[in-house]
Amino acid sequence: MVETSRVLTIPNVISIVRLFGVPLFLWLVLGPEADGWALGVLLLSGISDYLDGYLARRLHQTSKIGEILDPVADRLYILAVVFGLAWRDIIPWWLAVLLPARDLFLWGLVPFLRTRGYSALPVHFLGKAATANLLYAFPLLLLGDGEGALATLADVFGWAFAIWGTGLYWWAGLLYAWQVRKLLADHDRRAPTLDAG
To answer: Do the Cβ atoms of 26 and 80 come closer than 8 Å?
Structure first.
């Protein structure tokens, strides 16, 4: 698929608006504790996450900036949600530390990737599945912080998604690390260079 060099594409604007939802979510959860509105922000974030990728492919508006914005938005939402839920004592702090620790671990591999001419590894299915599990888990856990049968059910399913998501998140991270190790072991392997002409 051909990439566009334009920055202001419809998918990129959606991703940028999605990024503004991160501080809004944190304020809703930590300030007025307006959990219903916070859940609405997460719901809109999930819809826009699907929508920006769909429109990028459908309108042929894939771009390098879009490939950066989308995973950055995912990571920021996960970070904001785990921090907000840990602050409210909905999830334990060890979980709130475990998820960002995986991203810090992977960011530590970027300088090694650059020695082979890569800026990042391509996202694979396991990483997407992990992120999807976590993006389902945290709204359910927030919903589960209430009373009644619905809250109990949401809490059970939320923890199921959180446990699977965390396991897959770290498994995907270890697979990325394995890919980096293989690239470093192959002394002749370098990223392809683009013809400037």
So the answer is: yes
CB 58 within 8 A of CB 52: no
Dihedral sign for Cα 96, 102, 172, 51, please.
positive
| Six token digits for residue 85 | 């839920």
Q: Which candidate, 85, 101, 100, 96, places its Cα nearest to that of 42? A: 85
Q: How many helices (H) and strands (E) does the chain have?
A: 7, 0
Residues 152 and 165: their CA atoms lie apart, in Å, by 20
Specify the pLDDT at position 66: 80
CB-CB neighbours of 166 under 10 Å:
18
Nearest by Cα to 85 from 127, 170, 25: 25
* Averaged pLDDT for residues 33-55: 88
Q: pTM for this structure?
A: 0.76
Dihedral of alpha carbons 168, 173, 178, 183, sign: positive
Q: What is the DSSP string of 153-165?
A: HHHHHHHHHHHHH
Is the dihedral angle over the CA atoms 156, 158, 164, 167 positive or is it negative?
Answer: negative
CA geometry: angle 11, 12, 15, nearest 5 deg: 90
- The angle at the Cα of 23, spanning 22 to 24, to the nearest 5 degrees, equals 90
Helix (H, G, I), strand (E, B) or coil at 26: helix
